[in-house]
Amino acid sequence: MSANRGWWAPPEGEDSVSEKLLRKTRESPLVPIGLGGCLLVAAYRIYRLKARGSTKMSIHLIHTRVAAQACAVGAIMLGAVYTMYRDYIKRTSQDTREK
């Protein structure tokens, strides 16, 4: 093993991490949107941490977690609804046109 190798490189024939991320983003674009929503909610709630008033820290963190999870679950649900629409409704309407 050489210490001069620098960055870790994937084995031959495998995608790098950035290529995998781009491929997964093209396959399901709502996943990065959900992740971004989680990060935005978490950043906003951390920013508002000073203005929480008399609310306990644990309650504030629980509310932050619930809001971030709601963004992620919402994106997953939108993705599922879109996939069902694309697979069933569009396919059914195309099948009836062909007949």
From TrEMBL:
The chain crosses the membrane at residues 30-47, 67-85. Pfam families: HIG_1_N. It is found in: Mitochondrion membrane. Residues 1-94 form the HIG1 domain. Keywords: Membrane, Transmembrane, Transmembrane helix. InterPro entries: Hypoxia_induced_domain, RCF1. PANTHER family: HIG1 DOMAIN FAMILY MEMBER 1B, HYPOXIA-INDUCBILE GENE 1 HIG1 -RELATED. This is HIG1 domain-containing protein. PROSITE patterns: HIG1. Signal peptide: none annotated. Gene3D superfamilies: 6.10.140.1320. It comes from the Eukaryota. Its main location: mitochondrion. Coiled coil: none annotated. One of its GO terms (biological process) is mitochondrial respirasome assembly. One of its GO terms (cellular component) is mitochondrial membrane.
